[in-house]
Amino acid sequence: LAKRLVLSETEVIRTLFMKGIMANINQTLDVGTAKMVATELGYEVHAPEVVELALKTEMIEVDDLDKLQRRPPVVTIMGHVDHGKTTLLDAIRKSKVAQGEAGGITQHIGAYHVDVEHNGQDQQIVFLDTPGHEAFTAMRARGTKVTDIAVLVVAADDGVQPQTIEAISHARAAKVPIVVAINKVDKIEAQPDRIRQELTEYALVAEEWGGDTIMVPVSAIRGENLDTLLEMILLVAEVEDLQANPNRTAKGTVIEAHLDKAKGPVATLLVQNGTLRVGDIFVAGAAFGKVRAMVDDRGARVDKASPSFAVEVLGLGDVPAAGDEFEVYLDEKQARAIADQRTMDQRQARLIQAMASRRVTLGTLSEKVKEGDLKELNIILKADVQGSLEAILGSLAQLPQREVQLRILLSAPGEITENDISLAAASSAVVLGFNTTMAPGARQAADEMGVDFRDYNVIYKLLEDIQDAMEGLLDPEM
Ligand code: GDP
């Protein structure tokens, strides 16, 4: 089951445990229990009899399942401002990457990797080096998960702060395990135990206190205990059992992208499955690309990048957005068609957004009148019956109209239709409804075209709003 879910056995066993089922790794689960576990872990179970499971991450596909190999963890450093995230990132990099290695200058591409000797093997850890959780959150909001482990930095002289708590929530929401780095222990005011104490309030209990959260005291500035921190990250990675299939076409996420005057569009791609090679044809977001050259985080030209590694790639036709997914295609025509389609979709989305931001409301109209740009307030009025229409029109006519004139573009009994909305959009009018409803499609049209419609069932309320708006239109000085 764990294999089908692309999760560690521990996670499945933990879920069972939470449900009061003590299971060991060799036990057989019945279909009902397996279904319950899968649902609990956020999967959709399609056919309960067969327990066919939709894969949680799109990065790993069913065909990969029997070809998975271990991959390095991708780590994000999070924590409150000034607690030492940047210093820690720099210190780790410096401690592990010899200056001028691979003949290049170390360069910032949004991620770097370090080599760590662990269990007698040379292993890697990849750090996303945009500190703070903004990038992390932005990517997660777009449904992309790039981080495997979060290192939560807490300054030992300052304790848990608002962004510390935010970081914990973000990591939890993304189901990313947390390793705590208690930083600045070199300071006289440092009180590492106070940090451990404060973190218990957020259900992070240090291992040495009988909990299951690894907490490592470090001094980023002096480079102290960084090896232990790295060791612990690899330990957590082992438990997480991070895997990917390196023997397939690459898939992953754009972690940075910009337009370089000399090189054209440049993007840093984090490979999350498969292997990316020079010459590969890919689509990143809505951009078509062909890998012309790749540079790793140490400034070295490389011809391939395997799972969990980030490379800066040249050869894109356009600049994708950070958080966009990328995927390699064997068929260039297909890739171009996908990129074109997405470009069109994006244009349309932008158009809709632009229209919505030009939304005309009583408030925006009032602003314009204040600036002397508008002398007329356009109204479309729909009401349940002719009688109420006449009553409303009669009262509106009695409102003082010296500064601003009311212009009734249309008044009719009946529901608010898409046509009313387009008329309003075309003439910067607001739509007023009295005891009436919206026709199917009208509400969506109003959203898309940025039309303000107001719904009333008491006449004096409608009059009051219009009068307020018209008085708001008047210059208060006059
Ligand atoms: P960030 O905002 O979390 O990225 O924090 P910075 O890395 O910019 O660090 C904030 C301040 O704390 C800087 O002045 C650092 O020099 C200092 N600092 C960071 N780590 C340590 C440390 O281990 N010990 C001491 N004493 N100061 C540190």
From TrEMBL:
| Top-level taxon of the source organism | Bacteria
Annotated signal sequence is none
For molecular function, the Gene Ontology terms on record are:
translation initiation factor activity
Q: Where in the cell is it found?
A: Cytoplasm
Positions bound to GTP: 79-86, 129-133, 183-186
Q: Tell me where it mainly resides.
A: cytoplasm
**What are the UniProt keywords, alphabetically?**
Cytoplasm, GTP-binding, Initiation factor, Nucleotide-binding, Protein biosynthesis
Q: Which residues form the Tr-type G domain?
A: 70-242
What does the sequence similarity comment in the record state about its family?
Belongs to the TRAFAC class translation factor GTPase superfamily. Classic translation factor GTPase family. IF-2 subfamily.
Q: What does this protein do?
A: One of the essential components for the initiation of protein synthesis. Protects formylmethionyl-tRNA from spontaneous hydrolysis and promotes its binding to the 30S ribosomal subunits. Also involved in the hydrolysis of GTP during the formation of the 70S ribosomal complex.
Q: What is this protein called?
A: Translation initiation factor IF-2
The gene name on file is infB
Instruction: Write the span of the intact protein that is present.
Output: 551 to 1028 of 1129
